[in-house]
Amino acid sequence: MLFPTTAFALFYAAVLLLWWTVPARWSVARKSLLLGANLFFYAWWSWRFALLLLASAFLNQAFARAIARRDDPASRVRLVRLGVAANLALLAFFKYAAFLVMDVLSPVAAAVCRAIGPEALSAFVDFQTDRSIPFVQSIVLPIGISFYTFQAVAYLVDVGRGVCRPARAAIDFANYLAFFPKLCAGPIARPAELLPQMEEPPRDGSRVDAGRALWLVVFGLFKKTVLANFLAERLVDPFFSHAASAGAWDALLGAWGYSVQLYLDFSAYADMAVGLSLLLGFALPVNFDAPYFSSTLQEFWRRWHISLSSWLRDYLYIPLGGSRRGPARTQLNLFLTMLLGGLWHGAGWMFLLWGALHGAYLAAERRVLRRLGSDRAAAPAASRLVGRIWTFHVATALWIFFRCGTGGLGLDGAREVFGAFLRPGLPSILFSWKAVAILAAGFLCQFSDAARPRALWDRLGRLPAPALGALAALALAIVLGLGPSGVPAFIYFQF
After folding, report:
1. What per-residue confidence (pLDDT) applies to 495?
2. What are the pLDDT digits (tens) for 13-70?
3. Domain identity same for 36 and 96
4. Which residues in 32-43 are b (16+ Cβ under 10 Å) and which e?
5. Residue 195 shares a structural domain with residue 219
6. pLDDT of 277-325, one tens digit each?
7. Are residues 189 and 263 located together in one domain of the fold?
8. Which domain holds residue 471?
9. Were both Cys, which of 52, 111, 278, 295 would link to 387 (CB 3.0–4.6 Å)?
10. Domains: count for the chain
């Protein structure tokens, strides 16, 4: 069930009405209502995977309670490792089994059988046809499994570290894990951020920051349905589909377009997730903070998909040793963290390559900045501007590998895309002033990230409820009128 659809609008309106109608003193009824809404939202796509999500919630809650009961630190660590392994095993089966069988094991087995002889190779081909391919085709990736798995892992690790206690009731943790606004594509809310809100749900709808909530929903919808979709249809898809015959100017427009489209698409979902949660009285963490204004790639990852970047830092980079074991080990830890971060984004060689290139660049960047001993915040404005332009283009170049991974183009597709930059003499087919204006508008949307529009939210919040509702309805009608007839899925839904 996608956010910008009539089905979701009806579902959300019903949930919102019931949520604030049920008396606050009926705590169990309200929590049950929320859990029912969460499961219904997920079951709209697959009731089987909704049951899997519920089973995961109760299993992790059982692990957390068992961990908290242990006084022996070694016993706690063993239980944490067992619980984390169970979560990652489930994720690995759905997300990586097909990749492991078809892209890793099958080529090796084929080479071995080819060396043995024709009969062995024929038997391998029959096995592939009869067993391997049907097995791979039977695996369906549950939407959002990467996000809720990381939340479950954070919960078990934090309980083991003593950072948080287990949820008071299983229903509270189930609502934390399955909360529908952030279920499919984040933000990855930490237990300390969201779990207390599930244990003590908001009681008074008059305290909701309605101005901020409606701004985030409407502006997020605008970014997705108007700007991101325009860039996808007019620049990105046409270029990546015909990169072999494109020239340098179209390559530049297509690459810029994809960088901005990806930001608009993903930040739009995060905005709407935060806004929809706020209308229900729940606060989710900010997930974007003008990432393309960064002057280094390290700063970029502090601003892009913040909930994932901080998760990788706290649950992977720091446990690996962080920056505590010398420069060489720090660079290795950065590389490994981004390599695994690339694998998290998708099961494929292109995602591993994308993560490896990020890790290698971050390690080199850290080494260079360490030698220079420069403070980027105190650097001259011109130096910061050059750094921002450079970092945006580094991120854009690396996004090409990401796009070739999600689009199934592979390494050959990436070669075609980069090859287009070497053909400066060809005229541009994609250029139009409207496309350039939309591209610039999408880039400038970063000024709306984090708390920058706070003054506007506050003004909207001071309007009478009928006026605010009418204004929101008018804005939604305009946005939906400008957008296409059908809304493509959010890019990060497939992760």
Report:
1. 60
2. 999 999 999 998 899 999 999 999 999 999 998 889 999 999 999 999 999 999 999 9
3. yes
4. ebbbebbbbbbb
5. no
6. 999 999 999 999 999 999 999 999 999 999 999 999 999 999 988 888 8
7. no
8. 210-295+379-482
9. 295
10. 2
In a domain, residue 242? The reply is yes
Structure tokens, 424: 């400066």
Respond yes or no: is residue 393 known to be catalytic: no
Task: Supply the pLDDT for residue 260.
Answer: 97
Is residue 424 included in any domain, yes or no?
yes
Say yes or no to pLDDT of 485 above 70: no
Query: What's the token pair of residue 174?
Result: 């189930």
475 and 386 in a single domain? The answer is yes
**423 falls within a domain:** yes
Are residues 253 and 383 located together in one domain of the fold? Answer: yes
Residues 273 and 138 in one domain: no
Same domain, 129 and 256: no
Half-sphere exposure of 223 (CA within 13 A, CB side): 29
Q: Is residue 321 part of a domain?
A: no
Upstream peptide bond of 327 is cis (omega within 30 degrees of 0): no
Using CA of residue 184, residue 189, residue 195, residue 201, what is the dihedral sign?
negative
Annotated catalytic residue: which of 242, 305, 345, 358? 345
Last-in-domain residue among 177, 203, 229: 203
